[in-house]
Specification:
It is a single chain. By secondary structure, the chain is α/β, with parallel strands linked by helices. It has a single domain, classed as Spore Coat Polysaccharide Biosynthesis Protein SpsA, Chain A. Helices cover about 30% and strands about 25% of the residues. The protein contains seven helices and 13 strands. Strands 1, 4, 5, 6, 8, 9, 10, 11 and 12 form a nine-stranded mixed β-sheet that branches. Strands 2-3 form a two-stranded antiparallel sheet. The protein is globular and about 45 Å long.
Length: about 250
Amino acid sequence: MKAIILSAGQGKRLLPITEDTPKCLLRIDDQTIIEYQINTLSTIGIEHIVVVTGFKSLKVENYLKGIYKNTSLDMKYYYNPFYAVSDNLATCWIVREEFDRDFFIINGDDLFEGALVKKLLETDPYPVTVAMNIKSTYDTDDMKVVYNEKTGKLQEVSKLIDCNKAKAEAIGIHLFRDEGVNLFKNTVEELMREPSGLKKWYLSAINALAKKDAVNVCNITGFKWIEVDYPDDLVKAKELIKDIIVPTCNVV
C-alpha cells in the first residue's frame, strides 16, 4: 500500500501567506500540513509515500528530505511542470508510473485522523472507493457526490452538481485496489490525450469509472478532517488537531 499526495498547487485563495510558501508547507502549530498527512499515514502503517510537487517544488522537497531523512519511510518526489496551467488530472498523469499496487490518492490540503483512513481500508474490496462526508447543505465549492444509497455505488462526483441534488461531498481521499489500479491509470492516460485534458480534475477519471460500476463510496461522516482552502480554515485546523494525536515519525 502506498499513498500519493498531490501537493502541486500554490493555494491562491490563501494569498498573501502562500505568495512564497506552498499551501502544503503552511504550519499548523508545530507541524506543516504535509507533515501531519505523512505522520498520520505512518502511524497506520503506510510508509511508501509519493509527493507530487509544483509551486516552489524544491522548497517542498528539501524541507521533507530534511525532516524524514533518518526515518523508515520510503519517500519519492515528482515534479509537475504544468502546475500553473493545469488542473490535477495532469498531476496524476505525471506520477502514473507509481500506479503499480494498491494506493491512496490524497489531496495536499486535507488534514485527517488515522481512523478515517482505516475506515476506508476496512471497506469491502472494490476497484475504487471514494471517501464522502454527509452534511445538511452543500455549496458551489463542495465536490458534490451523487450515489446509489442501496448499492453504495458512486453515480457522479463534481462541483457542478446541483446543490439540491447532492447527497454528500467527496473529501479528497480515494482508495484504488486490485483492478482499480490499472483502470484508473488507463483512464488518466486516455483523458490526458484529449485537448481538454490539462484542464480536467482527476475526478473526471473517477466519474468515467463510475459509469462502469467500478466505484463505491465510504461514509466517513463523524470522523475528524478538514480541507484547508481559506484563511478561516487555518483557524479551524488548529482547533481540529487538538483532538488528533499525530506523533512524529520514528527515527532509525
